[in-house]
Amino acid sequence: MTESGRLSFLPLGDQAADPDVFLGELLDGWARAQQAAQFSPNTVSGKRARVLDLVEFSGHYPWEWTISDADDYFSHARGVRNLAYATIRSYQGAISMFCEFASDAAYDWNTECARLFGGVFSQVITEWNRITHSQPTEAKSAKRAFSQTELQQFFDLADLEAERIVNAGRRGALAAMRDAAAFKCLYGWGLRVDEARHIQVVDFSRNYSAPYFGDYGVLRIRWGKPHRGSAKKTRSVLTVWDWPAEALRIWIGHGLPLYGTPVTDVFPTTGGKVVDEPQLLKRLHALIDELGFPPGLDIHSFRRTYGTHLITGLGFDVSFVQLQFGHEHASTTTIYTLPAPDYQRLALKNAHDATLEAAQHLLNGRRP
């Protein structure tokens, strides 16, 4: 086995091929590929367990799997084991990812499997048996913000998606890059989805009080939520963090020109229109499903997370966030004063750090 995950040889001698040995080599190769893509060890071992679980349940090796095997497995998981829909979605994401890897022409697994066992891998998770977010859940959880860890994992996977599409020889890598940039924009400036969809290149400008953001210090919003019967509201949103500005600079400078003739929209389609909300939702749900996050996240969660992080995480004044959001009333903005998911942990850490610092001052014979 090579470090890239390719099968270099299978030491069989004169004996018949051992399917268990081959499956072990395949799973090890898949683990290496996931580790190279920066998946955590827990995520890698969890996905491996899902493959072995389906093998045991169906009594078939992966190159023998049929769609019926997957249907029976997930029907049993829901009807007998009573697993949550979110859990089953994450299981389906793991099986789908495994099938995609095993059948990828960039590796040798399909060729060797055909030679040794007379079978090949195929995708057993389809649009027909995949659980979508339109399915009911046991309890209708309230919409929520991302935790800091979830947000980082989501953006990492969104960035990886384009690379995976290229490696698989499929179309759509540019659209994946565009969607990843759109998600970062939604969070980076706390936008509604319609506001982000209609951003044009000329809407970014310098903030001379914050020159370190370059040409991305201010974002002019021209598709703000209107009052009933009125025109779209406009506002200016100040850039708070440097990384969203850098992400948009890279996208506009290197990704957007790949659409061909100069375009004015930041998030266009090949047909010359702006990306639509269903496309962003489809990408969002696919990534969340693969990561196996608990329910409650939607495309508005980026805006919720932005407001919550600014107010309860970083201590920004509610009035500042009200202006950033374009809220008419401060009472609307105060819904984001609920503690962020990481707030208690960070607050406890800060308290411990302060206690230790004070103790160190006393040991050194001076007042804190």
From TrEMBL:
Residues 21-103 form the Core-binding (CB) domain. Pfam families: Phage_integrase (PF00589). Residues 141-349 form the Tyr recombinase domain. Keywords: DNA recombination, DNA-binding. The keyword DNA-binding applies. The keyword Hydrolase does not apply. InterPro entries: CB, DNA_brk_join_enz, Integrase-like_cat_sf, Integrase_catalytic, Tyrosine_recombinase_XerCD. It comes from the Bacteria. SUPFAM superfamilies: DNA breaking-rejoining enzymes. Belongs to the 'phage' integrase family. This is Integrase. It comes from Subtercola frigoramans.
